[in-house]
Amino acid sequence: MGLTAYRCCLGMLVILLMGFPVRSIHAQTDGLSEAPANPVFKDDLDAPLDPDQPLTEFPDFGVEWPDLDEVAEPVDGAEDVEGVPALTKADENEDQDLTATENILADDLPLNDYRPADLLAETSYRIGFRGLPDGIGEAFRSRFKILSVLEQYRGDDANFAQIRRRAQSDTELVERLLRIEGYYDAVVQTGFEADGDDQLAVLINVQAGPQYALDRIVLPGLDDARTADRQAFRDSFGLQSDDIVNSDDIMDAKGRLDGAMAENGYPFAITGEPELEIDHAERLGDLEVTVKPGGKYNFGSVVMGQADLFDADHVQMIARFDSGDVYQASDLEDLRRALIATGLVSTITIDPVVAEEPDAVDIAVNVTPAPLRTIAGELGYGTGEGARAEVSWEHRNMFPPEGLIRMTGVLATQEQSGSIAYRRNNYRRRDNVLNGRTALSVVDRPAFKAQTFSVAANIERQSNLIYQKRWSWSVGIELLASREKDVTGPTGATGRDTFFIGSLPGLVTYDASDDLLDPSRGFRLSGRIAPEASLQNGSFFYVRSQLDGSAYFPASEKITLAGRARFGSIVGAGNNRIAPSRRLYSGGGGSVRGYSYQSIGPRDANNDPVGGRSLVEFSLEARVKTGLFGGNLGVVPFIDAGNVYTSSSPDFKGLRYGAGLGVRYYSDFGPIRIDVGTPINPQPGDSRVAVYVSLGQAF
Fold it and tell me: Any residues with CB less than 8 A from the CB of 487 and at least 6 apart, and which?
């Protein structure tokens, strides 16, 4: 185990030695020892290890196998270096542990003078820090946990010699991590002590010294950029003289400069690796970053090598830039995401290439098609709705570009249906969707029985999982013929009527929430209106409308309060003239939980719901994240209320209340919802428990 730990340490040192070039000017000052200056950047530290890569050669570098019978000597200079006291027992409040759960004290022995009674006995150990500067952030601690040999083998018992070698390796690591944050004179020493009967305490004592500051900052080559852009690029770099020599800040500044040039017409700009010269006498650093801006360009044309899925004109229509606009790298990233959102491509490359026109770059787009056909199935069960099975087949580019055909069949306890749908994404304009659908269904619910043939089409501009829009809308047309069974007269007699209905549905939504599937703040408003004409018992007209609103308030980091209200109305015709399937209903997982689907409201002589011409609904819930299962599990207590009325305006009387508890599992694609509710003031025949399962929050 000891040799393995040592080789791992060498692997870590290889990573740590790969920083940007640094020259050190050494001078003997204040009695402080001189340290090599090779800063480490997070890009280097995050790089994956290659187990097959040979180790870097270190001339005259070696380690002697320890003599376990030899008494350990104190570290040279532990008491002689000016300003670095030997590790002594300190007050508990002065300890700075790597983790808040550990509190380790040093003893009165000189540094490294600890010797266990049994040198071969294996033991566990803890790690503690003392003397870390107050400004040390989470990045230092995270890097130490990732790169530390002590941390890597922390859960494995080891003998004292093995633990000491690990600590010696981590001494160099801590010095290098401190240099990242500008502590170029840091001195790090390790000590040991018994921590209980069967554990060892490894103590890392830090004398950080002063932080070095930047002195001269030069960006050679930046003057090759156009005069109007130079100062803006210098400002984007951001670093000034007297700023701390922080490797992370330097790399962030380099990234900001790269981004500024790429966003302002310089697609071929290159910035070299930062070069830092450290003056130990003055405790200053001179920074140089070579810049090659290249030319400034505008967008030219979109060019494609193949057009099996869509052609260059379609890609240009999707893009948010036009020919002649100043080149911006963010526009290419936006186009990449939009093309991925089509679902038609598996890989994509988008690169600027020099165009024939001067000062213009064409955008070369190359895509690899994804599988275009999908067969999907779904099984489910809902209280009041029964069992449901659905199967579908789709081809996402049967009619290029982006012309989808989907065929769906449903076999359920209360429904049997088949449909063919057509959908064209990015229709004439980005994010516009053209839809068409033909369906034949047989529905047998407690509220009504209907055999319906329908044809519908609409154009919409809606939010999706990649682009959540503030404003969404939809307008369309719907034609249907439906033979429906309804209760008529005071005796409860049933009859079948045939309805021929034409509708012009419209929807507008304003979404000011922060997330499409799991909002935690903001609000949403939506309005629906559908003028309809019916040919049952003579021609007549009526208007169906609905207004929805919801709001979200973060009560704390883990609790979100959410509320919802809904108002619906039908004006222009009596309840008995409107087709049962076109009336308003309430109850279910997206309505008043605790009640079966469409079960709330007036009922007929058979105690079946008949629907109405107006409704009101209210919901209030608390979404609490528990921290269980990696923070992915939450609970949601809720209370809902609502009712349906036969008049065209609600009177808010006789509200039905439901309450319950839900569970949310927050997956990568949105929360999975399971709600269990019960009616507080049920009507005769209502079930005492209702269960709902879906993707996304209830509202």
Answer: 493, 494, 604, 605, 606, 608, 610
